[in-house]
Amino acid sequence: MLKSRIATALVIAPLTLTAVFFLSPQAFALFVALVVLMAAWEWTAMMRLVSRSQRTVYVLSVLFAIVLVQKLLPHYEKIIFLVAALWWLAATVLVVLYPRACALWCGRLSKGVVGFLVLVPTWAAIVYIRELSQGPWLIVYMFLIVWGADTGAYFAGKRFGKRKLMPRVSPAKSWAGIGGATVTVLLVSMFTQKHLYFSQDLSFGIYLLAMVLLFASVIGDLTESMFKRQCGIKDSGSILPGHGGIMDRIDSLTAAAPVFALCLILISQ
Known about the structure:
It contains 8 helices and 2 strands; from the N terminus they run αααααββααα. The chain has 269 residues and is mainly alpha-helical. The protein has one domain. It has a two-stranded antiparallel sheet. α7 runs antiparallel to α8.
């Protein structure tokens, strides 16, 4: 399992970094849209859509929403990311209440709406951040935070993870994993702070931001785990050996990206 995870990561990481640093803005937006639409296809499985035509219609609906948001993004980016952040606050409540609040979101329509709230702002946030000064490096920082936290949590949880975090939602996650993730993101912020324009005047604020992004990434992960558990599936897909599906790889990012974009907007004001 670990070997396949590492092998897959060794393929994904160079491809992703190449896209971040070398694609034109239009090509990068298309690249991110393709990833999001693949995730949308997997999301339809959690909606329990069986018909290929139904699944295709949902994916096309997400594409239409992306096109619409692209038109709105230059003028309403703060509102878009604020709505996304409010959704993730609501998701936190749903995760804490699981399974008592299942009735609020277990229907196909509800899950479909949630899919839009999860996926479309992810596309918007990554594209928005890429266009900022130091945009590619800001995305690398975000990746280091999100996937560094995942790595730190994995190894700390394996070694010390006796006390479970939320066993009803995700039995594999532990408080020790959260500790490992916390250490990792703090170290990432410490080593990258002097290289990022937005953080040079934040002092200890960069560590607070790291904790906010860590919290968001954990909620993104737990939210997808909650939906998968309610559906009775282990992985969203099987396209990535050792990782599962696209959603399994970007679940933390779906929350962290719009929250990070909102924080960058607020910091710059």
